Amino acid sequence: AMERSYVSVLLLLIVISCALAKDAGKKDSKDTTTKPKLPQTLSRGWGDQLIWTQTYEEALFRSKHSQKPLMIIHHLEDCPHSQALKKVFAEHKDIQKLAEKFILLNLVYETTDKNLAPDGQYVPRVLFIDPSLTVRADITGRYSNRLYAYEPSDISLLYSNMQKALKLLKTEL
């Protein structure tokens, strides 16, 4: 009986790896016409090689325990402004490199934490949180009516704000 369960587990593994291999092959083909909406990774396109957390709670926990700042991106899949920012963010090599020093979370829904919407629930908006779990409301973009909004043309400002979030962190801890 023992041997049979081994065989069934092995078969299951083979089936799973075949299914994965099939998906991997599909991703490479540049045929965009018949592409089904496959569930994306947690990156949702903001940086597929980066490690993204799944929930706000997990992100806070990881930030606190790793002593890395947390960067939260609120966005919506069907918002053209979110899509435009995502594209330049994902293609910006320096940002992608610097992002490795953060705990990362992108959300397509609002949390119940009002601190994440200091001036409203608009998208896209980017907020930084210290490992002390303090929202860095002082790190803002260039728009006075939407303090945490960034346009694609503001990508270098977002980059320097990421540097700021890391730098102030070092001096305060």
TrEMBL record:
GO molecular function: dystroglycan binding
Entry's localization field: Endoplasmic reticulum; Secreted
Domain of life: Eukaryota
One matching Pfam family: Thioredoxin_7
Segment forming the signal sequence: 1-21
Coiled-coil portions: none
Keywords (A to Z) from UniProt: Endoplasmic reticulum, Secreted, Signal
GO cellular component, as recorded: endoplasmic reticulum; extracellular region
Primary localisation category: endoplasmic reticulum
InterPro entries reported for this sequence: AGR/TXD, Thioredoxin-like_sf
Family per record: Belongs to the AGR family.
Name of the protein described by the UniProt record: AGR2 protein
